[in-house]
């Protein structure tokens, strides 16, 4: 399976290196799309080395005949966004396409898996919950529930990125 892994700027982005390794170990191909701020948590070089695929970091970096968001959407069987921050969920739910991650979402017509990860107060905010409900109404969009546990801010609550093996299993069971 070809997996496009979207990475947004949440602290859980550091876990994506291991997520890539797990998918590769299971025989899948992974290419990553990183938001600008996600690169503060994990580097493109790490993900490129682990995936052995180009890591996309800019909307207008294309060096071929096809815009990157279209070529990624054509290549991938599944579009996984982990972590999916409140910002990214809001963009997706409202059709805002101002970077490579959000334009790829709009161009993608196969299964999309969103893994929200954020502070528990952010996750339970009515606006975030409205955006999640809106996304769940879209065809081919699957939203995993975050886990309950210790959060980076020091609190304990609902908002942790699901355990990586759970994400891998969820994605693999889509096909």
Structure write-up:
With 175 residues, the chain is an alpha/beta fold. It has eight helices and eight strands, in the order E-H-E-H-E-H-E-H-H-E-H-H-E-E-E-H. The chain has helices at 16-25, 44-51, 68-75, 86-93, 100-107, 120-124, 126-136, 164-172, and strands at 2-7, 29-34, 55-56, 78-84, 112-116, 141-143, 147-150, 156-160. Helix 1 runs parallel beside helix 2, helix 1 crosses helix 8 (164-172) and helix 4 crosses helix 7. The protein is globular and about 40 Å long. The model has no long low-confidence stretch (mean pLDDT 91).
Q: What is the arithmetic mean of pLDDT? A: 91
So how many helices? Answer: 8
| Largest β sheet strand count, sense and barrel closure | 6 strands, parallel
The ordered H/E elements are: EHEHEHEHHEHHEEEH
Number of strands: 8
Question: Which key terms come to mind for this protein?
Answer:
alpha/beta; two-stranded antiparallel sheet; 175 residues
Summarize the structure.
The chain is built from 8 helices and 8 strands. The chain is of the alpha/beta class and 175 residues long. The longest helix is centred in the last third of the chain and has 11 residues, at 126-136.
């Amino acid at each position: 399976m070809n997996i496009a892994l979207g990475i947004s700027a949440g602290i859980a982005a550091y876990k994506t290196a291991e997520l890539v390794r797990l998918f590769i170990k299971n025989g899948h191909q992974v290419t990553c799309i990183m938001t600008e701020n996600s690169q503060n948590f994990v580097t493109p070089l790490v993900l490129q080395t682990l995936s052995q695929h180009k890591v996309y970091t800019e909307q207008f970096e294309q060096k071929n005949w096809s815009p990157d968001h279209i070529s990624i959407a054509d290549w991938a069987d599944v579009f996984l966004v982990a972590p999916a921050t409140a910002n990214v969920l809001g963009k997706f739910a409202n059709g805002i396409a101002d970077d490579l991650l959000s334009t790829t979402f709009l161009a993608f017509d196969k299964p999309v898996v969103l893994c929200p990860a954020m502070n528990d107060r952010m996750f339970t905010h009515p606006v975030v919950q409205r955006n999640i409900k809106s996304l769940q109404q879209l065809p081919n969009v699957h939203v995993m529930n975050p886990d309950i546990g210790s959060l980076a801010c020091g609190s304990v609550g609902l908002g942790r990125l699901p355990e990586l093996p759970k994400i891998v299993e969820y994605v693999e069971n889509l096909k």
